[in-house]
Design a protein that fits this description.
There is one protein chain. By secondary structure, the protein is mainly alpha-helical. The protein has helices at about 1-5, 15-35, 45-50, 55-60. It has one domain (about 1-60). It contains four helices and no strands. The longest helix is centred in the middle third of the chain and has 21 residues, at about 15-35.
Length: about 70
């Protein structure tokens, strides 16, 4: 699921991008509340980084329409 939403971060459709961002936000919020690993790290945030979504999020911050 995270990888699929991360793939949507590269589309040029603003609505699809907004849905993907909202979905990632919901997943990360849920992970922070319910899915911490033994080091108190959000397990879902680790997956976000592993599948490359973090890079895509950082690239979106550099977008001219930001």
């Amino acid at each position: 699921m995270i990888q699929a939403l991360g793939g949507m971060l590269k589309v040029n459709d603003v609505r699809m991008l907004a849905v993907a961002l909202e979905g990632l936000d919901n997943i990360l919020s849920c992970g922070q509340k319910h899915f911490l690993n033994e080091n108190s790290e959000n397990r879902f945030s680790i997956v976000v980084e592993e599948v490359g979504c973090l890079d895509d999020l950082e690239n979106l911050q550099q977008h001219p329409n930001h």
